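FYI - complex with coenzyme A, inputs then prediction.
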Amino acid sequence: MDELHINDVKIREASVNDIDKIYLIEKLSFHEQEVYPKNLLNFYLSIAPKTFLVAEVRDKIIGYVIAVIRRGYIGHVVSIAVDPSFRRKGFGKLLMVKIEEVLKVLGCVILRLEVSKTNTAARNLYLNIGFVEAYEVPKYYFNGCDAIIMFKLLSKYRQTLV
Ligand SMILES: CC(C)(COP(=O)(O)OP(=O)(O)OC[C@H]1O[C@@H](n2cnc3c(N)ncnc32)[C@H](O)[C@@H]1OP(=O)(O)O)[C@@H](O)C(=O)NCCC(=O)NCCS
């Protein structure tokens, strides 16, 4: 593939047809025990179709992000990954910026996520876009790694939280 530019990428809602490719990216991106099986990916697609996004370059899926909305106002970023051959080109950041926009439109005032303490790439990405590291959960992951819980405030004030 020729040199890629950030403008070559299209971010759109995922569809059932994308699940095989998303699963491949999962397998290339996470420890065996942390990989989401296809049925879990399909479950997220069914409960959160507006907040399951893919990044597509010339008809190829190169990354995805999944979020769910908790209590109507907390946007929980459940997973994000970019195909290893397409990393460090700004696509992860773009996926995060887009999911943040969608979650805000859907009424979220705060974002939350968990990240492994040893995952420097992801921690830097989240810090880079304004998340703060709030607290640690020891041995959160199957491999025994600690998690860091991160938040980002989207809006300082909202009239009601119904
Ligand atoms: C985390 C991940 C999604 C980042 O995707 P990406 O497309 O490579 O990230 P970007 O190119 O948009 O990088 C944005 C910023 O993140 C940080 N970053 C990304 N990769 C990094 C790395 N390997 N080392 C240090 N910082 C990194 C940098 O601050 C970077 O900004 P810069 O390029 O201007 O320095 C990708 O590394 C990935 O898929 N990892 C495996 C899955 C994973 O760990 N997901 C997160 C689970 S919590």
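Helices lie at 19-29, 38-47, 91-105, 120-128. Residues 29, 80-82, 87-93, 115, 119-122, 124-125, 128 surround coenzyme A (CB under 6 Å).
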